[in-house]
Design a protein that fits this description.
The chain has 358 residues and is an alpha/beta fold. Helices cover 41% and strands 15% of the residues. It folds into 2 domains: 5-218, inorganic pyrophosphatase (n-terminal core), CATH 3.90.1640.30; 233-339, Diaminopimelate Epimerase, Chain A, domain 1 (Roll), CATH 3.10.310. Helix 2 (30-45) links the parallel strand 1 and strand 2 (51-55).
Length: 358
Amino acid sequence: MTEDPEKEALSFIMDIDSGAKVTLLYHGDGDGVCSAVMVYKCLQRRGISNINPLPLERGENPFSERTTAKINGSDTDFLVVLDSGSRRGTFHNIRSLVIDHHVPDSVPEVEVFFNTWVDKTNRITSEAVFDLVKRIIPEDDIRWYSLTGTGADAGLSKAFSRYAGKEKKYGNKEIQECISLINASRRHCSFRIAEVFNLLVRSTSPSMFIAAAKRAGIDKLREELKLELKKNLKIAPVFSSFFVLFQLNSPHQIHPLIASIWSVKLNRYVVIAANWGYLPGKVSFSIRTESGKDLLVLLKKYRKKGEEIGFGHSKATGGIVKEEVFRDFLRRLGFKPKLLHPKPPDVHRGTLGSHNVT
C-alpha cells in the first residue's frame, strides 16, 4: 500500500507511453463499464491507441484461472482493473493498477491499489475515476459517464448531489434510461456488455447513447428480462430462522433483482436468491437485506475457508460456487436437505406487483 494511492494511480496512468499496449479489465455493471469508458477516453486523449477493453466474463473475477490466463497471454504492458472487487492475486510481469470501492477481502499484489473504502472516501469507482481523469480530459466530456456509473451503483440522488450547481445538462430520466440499457446488456444471457461499451465510447451524450443502444436492440433484451423477472417473482420462499431462500433456474442474471425486490418486502430477513441455471454446474446467488444486519460480518460465521461467499457490501453480497458447495452452505444456514436440488420450487404464489428492470 502506498501513502497516497490516488496520487499513485494518477502517476500510473501518466506513465503509460504512447506505444504501450493497455488492457482495461472491468466489471460489466454500470459502474464498471462507465469507469472503463472514462479511462479509455483519457488514454486516447494522451495519444495511446493500443487499448484492449475486456469485460469480466460471467462468473469470473480478476484472479480466476481463466481471466489470468487471458491477461498473461495477451502481451499487455499495462493493466487497469476497474470495479472488480479487491482480493488477493497478481498479474506476473504486468504493470497493474486496481481501482475499486468494495470492502477488500485482501490486498492484491499489484503496483498500485486504489480502493476508496480503504481511503475512507467511499466513492463509487466511477466517482474515483472521474476525479482522476478530469485532470487530463475536460470534465464536460466525461461527467455524464460518472453520473451514469454512480447512479447505477448508488442511486441517482447520490449521483446528482455530487454535481449540485454544476450539472444541469442531463435529467434523471435520460441517465436512468442509460443505466437501464447498460444493465439489460449484462443481465441478459447474450451478455452484450462489450457492444454497449463501444456504443458508450462513440456517444457524446446520454441521448446519443440511448438512440444507438435502441438501434442495436438492447431495449428488446430489456423486455425479455422483464418477462423473465415477472415469471420468477412467483417462486415461493422457504424460511430458516432469519434467512429466506428463493431458488430459480434462469439463464439470465435476474437473481440480484429478485433478492433486492424481496428484501424490501421481507425487510426483517436476509434474502437469498439462488440461480441454478445461470452458469453450468454452479449456483449463482445474491444476498440482500434491509434488516440492519451486516452481511459481511454475518456470513463469516457460515462461510468455510476459501469459499467465494459474502464479499463486497454490508447490505448486498452473494457468490458463485459449485452446486455441492451451495447445498452444504444451505445446510449450515439451517435449510433442510430435501430442499437442496438444482430445480426451482413449485411456482404457486403471487408476485409483489409490477417491478421495472432498471
